[in-house]
Design a protein that fits this description.
By secondary structure, the chain is α/β, with parallel strands linked by helices. The strands form three sheets. A seven-stranded mixed beta sheet has the order 10-9-8-11-12-14-13, with helices on both faces. Strands 2-3-1-4 form a four-stranded antiparallel beta sheet, covered by helices on one side. Strand 8, helix 5 and strand 9 form a beta-alpha-beta unit. The longest helix has 13 residues. The chain is elongated, with a radius of gyration of 23 Å. About 5% of the residues have low confidence.
Length: about 300
C-alpha cells in the first residue's frame, strides 16, 4: 500500500490540537519530532513534554484528497484561530510502497557490549552462539541497549559478572539488565518498575530467554520487604536516583555494590555529593557521550 506523509512545524501549543485534527480525519499514524534541535533530558514524572518547535507528521493513504483533507483539518474546532495555520504551512511527501515492518526489523542488528555480552533481536540468529546472548524484542521499547545509559550498564555487567550474587534491577524497563545479570551467573535476580507496561515487557523478555526472574511493580516489590542484595542496578534519571537513595540503601547489604546510570555527566557532582554525605563511596565513574554511570559501595 502506498502512503503520503503530511508534515507541519508548529509551536508546542498547537502540536496536540493538530495531532487530534489529523487523527479525526483518519490518519494511520501521527508522530512528533523535534524541529529545532531542542533536547529534553529529564521531564517531570508523569508528564509528556513537547518541544517548543514541534514537527507533526501524519500518515495517510496515497489516494487521499489532500486539498480536501487539509480544509477539514484547518477547520477542526480543536485548532485555535490564532495563530492560524494555512495550507502552505504543510508539506506533502509520497512514500514508496514497501514492507515497513520488514524495513523496521532490518534497522535492528545484534549489538555487542564488552567482551561476551550480545543483545540480539528475537528474529536474528546470534552472531556468536557461544557468547552470552540476550534475545530481545525491540518492539517492547523501554531499553534495548541502544541508549548510552543502558550501554554503560551492560558494559559494566560484562566486566563485573555478578556470579552467585543477588541482584535487583530497579526501574527495569524491558528487563534487559536483569536478563544480563541472570545470564552472567547471578544467583537470584528481581526487577521492579512503576510502569505496568514495563513489567509486562520484562516478563515477556524473561520468558523468551527462559530466565527465572521475578518482575513486580514497585509497590508490590516493596510490600514484600525484599532481602538486602549484593548488587542493585538503577538506570533511571538523576532526580529519581537522588530521591531513591534511602530505598537503595535499605536494599543493599553492607558494602554491597550500587550501579547508577541515566544521569547526564553535568549532574554527577550533585548526585555524588548527596550519596557520599550518606556514607557511600564512589568506586568508578564511566561516561559515554554526555551520559554517566557510577559504581558506588554502600556504607558498612
Amino acid at each position: 500500500m502506498a502512503w503520503i506523509q503530511i508534515k507541519a512545524t508548529v509551536n508546542e501549543t498547537l502540536a496536540d490540537p493538530l495531532s487530534d485534527a489529523f487523527s479525526e480525519q483518519g490518519a494511520a499514524s501521527v508522530t512528533f519530532a523535534d524541529a529545532a534541535d531542542q533536547p529534553i533530558f529529564e521531564p517531570e514524572l508523569g508528564t509528556t513534554p513537547i518541544w517548543q518547535r514541534t514537527q507533526v507528521i501524519a500518515l495517510f493513504d496515497a489516494a487521499t484528497d489532500v486539498d480536501a483533507l487539509l480544509t477539514q483539518v484547518l477547520a477542526a474546532p480543536t485548532l485555535p484561530d490564532s495563530p492560524g495555520l494555512v495550507k502552505s504551512d504543510f508539506t506533502i511527501e509520497p512514500l514508496e510502497d514497501k514492507d515497513w515492518v520488514r524495513a523496521w526489523m532490518d534497522a535492528f542488528e545484534p549489538m555487542q557490549f564488552g567482551q561476551r555480552l550480545w543483545i540480539v533481536p528475537s528474529w536474528h540468529q546470534p552472531p556468536d552462539p557461544q557468547a552470552v546472548n540476550l534475545m530481545l524484542d525491540p518492539g517492547m521499547a523501554f531499553g534495548t541497549g541502544t541508549h548510552p545509559t543502558t550501554a554503560l550498564c551492560l558494559q559494566w555487567l560484562d566486566a563485573h559478572s555478578p556470579v552467585d550474587q543477588s541482584v535487583v534491577d530497579y526501574g527495569c524497563g524491558s528487563g534487559v539488565l536483569a536478563l544480563a545479570a541472570t545470564k552472567l551467573g547471578a544467583r537470584s535476580v528481581s526487577g521492579t518498575d512503576i510502569d505496568p507496561q514495563a513489567i509486562r515487557a520484562s516478563r515477556d523478555n524473561a520468558e523468551r530467554n527462559q530466565a527465572d526472574i521475578t518482575f513486580e511493580l514497585v509497590e508490590d516489590f516493596e510490600a514484600t520487604s525484599p532481602q538486602p542484595a549484593d548488587l542493585v542496578i538503577a538506570n533511571i534519571l538523576a532526580g529519581p536516583l537522588k530521591s531513591l537513595r534511602p530505598n537503595f540503601q535499605s536494599l543493599l547489604k553492607p558494602e554491597a555494590t550500587l550501579v547508577l546510570s541515566g544521569l547526564l555527566t553535568t549532574q554527577v557532582d550533585d548526585l555524588l555529593d548527596d550519596y557520599t554525605r550518606h556514607g557511600f563511596q564512589c568506586l568508578a565513574h564511566n561516561t559515554l557521550e554526555d551520559w554517566s554511570q557510577l559504581t558506588l559501595q554502600a556504607p558498612s
